[in-house]
Design a protein that fits this description.
By secondary structure, the protein is α/β, with parallel strands linked by helices. Helices cover 35% and strands 16% of the residues. It has a five-stranded parallel beta sheet with strand order 2-1-3-4-5, with helices on both faces. The two termini are 33 Å apart.
């Protein structure tokens, strides 16, 4: 059984993040479950490195055994995933990279050093199967695919470095699949109810 220490969920106001916070709190496996979002205290904005640094610093002296990044961007009211290269838009591409790759990389910069030097600890971030270069058979979704591919490379590179100072720690990207959240709602298959 995991030592009763701290679990951290970043993006706790989203569908997956909120569900993770609830499940971790219900498990009783942690002394505390810290939920960060733009509305938390301190607030955490994935596009603002100072807020990432401040959120990480607010955990001291607690040592997190689990950090989960449940942030991500697929679409908003102004942008939908591109179906063809003619739809590529620099602003949408920059936003996808800021939210799906750069922000999580900066989370690693500030939260990986907090993991204990000895014993099992985990930093996990949500990626997506569509970020796989080898598994891309359908095309489209340029910005989302490319930003998640970049995230996967950040995670792989950070995992190698993390193993040098924390050999039992894990840095991993997770593919949650299509889940019933507002992020996936426009793309859910028939029969998947999104609440």
């Amino acid at each position: 059984m995991m030592d009763k220490s701290v679990a951290v969920v970043i993006g706790a106001s989203g569908g997956i993040g909120a569900a993770l916070v609830a499940a971790l709190r219900a498990s009783g496996g942690y002394r505390d479950v810290v939920a960060f979002s733009r509305a938390s205290t301190p607030p955490l904005d994935i596009t603002d490195e100072a807020s990432l640094r401040d959120a990480a610093a607010s955990l001291a002296p607690a040592v997190p055994l689990l950090v989960i990044d449940a942030t991500g961007f697929l679409h908003d009211a102004a942008h939908r995933p591109e179906k063809a290269w003619r739809e590529l838009d620099p602003a949408q591409m920059a936003r996808a990279f800021a939210l799906n790759a750069i922000g999580p990389a900066l989370l690693m910069k500030h939260f990986l050093p907090l993991l204990p030097a000895q014993g099992r600890a985990v930093f996990a971030t949500l990626s997506a199967r569509v970020g796989s270069i080898g598994d891309n058979r359908l095309g489209g979704w340029y910005s989302y695919r490319a930003s998640k591919a970049a995230l996967n490379q950040f995670v792989r590179t950070a995992a190698i470095e993390l193993a040098r100072s924390r050999p039992q720690a894990i840095c991993v990207a997770l593919h949650p699949g299509t889940v019933a959240t507002p992020l996936s709602k426009p793309f859910a298959k028939a029969g998947l109810e999104v609440r």
